[in-house]
Amino acid sequence: MTIYTGIEENRFRSSTMYQAAYRNQEYRQQDVMGASPIRLVVMAYDLAIRACEQEDFEKATRAISVLRDALDFDHTEVAVGLFRLYQWCLDCLRKGDYATAGSTLRELREAWYTAEQRMSGAGRAVVEPSFKGIARPV
Q1: Which of 96, 101, 112, 113 could form a disulfide with 92 if both were Cys (CB 3.0 to 4.6 A apart)?
Q2: Domain spanning 36-120 has what CATH number?
Q3: What pLDDT does 138 receive?
Q4: pLDDT at residue number 67
C-alpha cells in the first residue's frame, strides 16, 4: 500500500491543480460575461499588453485583431484612427518590436481606462435642485 501513496499524492495534486484552474477559468468567464463593453475593451488591451511583454506573437496578434475587428465604423474618424494604430502595432509585432507595440497599447489602454472611470463616475452623480446647480455624488 505504501507504493501507491506517491501515486495517489500525485493524483491529489493534479486534481487540486485542475480544480483551481477550473475555478479561475470560471471566475474569468463570469468577469467577462458581466463586463460592460468598455470594460471588455480594457481587458482586451490588458491581454495584448501582457502578450507583448511576454513576446508572444500569436496572443498579441489575436488580441490586437479583436480590438481592430470590434471597431464601430459608424464613428468613422475615430475608428479609422484606431484601425491605423492597430495595424501599425501588428506591423511592429511582425518586425519583432514588441516594446513599441506594447508602449502604444499601454497609452491607448490608459485612455480607455480613463474614459471608463469617467463614465462610471458620471453614473453616480445626481443633480439636485439648488441655487448653485452643483452635482453632488450619492
Answers
A1: 101
A2: 1.20.120.340
A3: 38
A4: 96
Ranges of residues in the chain with a pLDDT under 50 are 1-2, 124-138
Write down the pLDDT at residue 76. Answer: 93
> Beta strand 125-127 with 135-137: parallel, antiparallel or unpaired?
antiparallel
Domain residue spans of the chain: 1-34, 36-120
| Run of H or E residues at 92 | helix 76-94
Comparing C-alpha atoms, which of 115, 109, 65 is closest to residue 86? Answer: 65
Q: State the greatest distance between any 2 C-alpha atoms of the chain, in Å, as a whole number.
A: 83
User: What is the C-alpha to C-alpha distance for residues 125 and 136, in angstroms, rounded to an integer?
Assistant: 6
Of residues 39, 38, 58, the one with CA closest to residue 48: 58
* DSSP helix/strand/coil, 1: coil
pLDDT at res. 136: 39
How is residue 103 written as a grid cell?
508602449
pLDDT for res 137: 41
Three-state SS for 138? coil
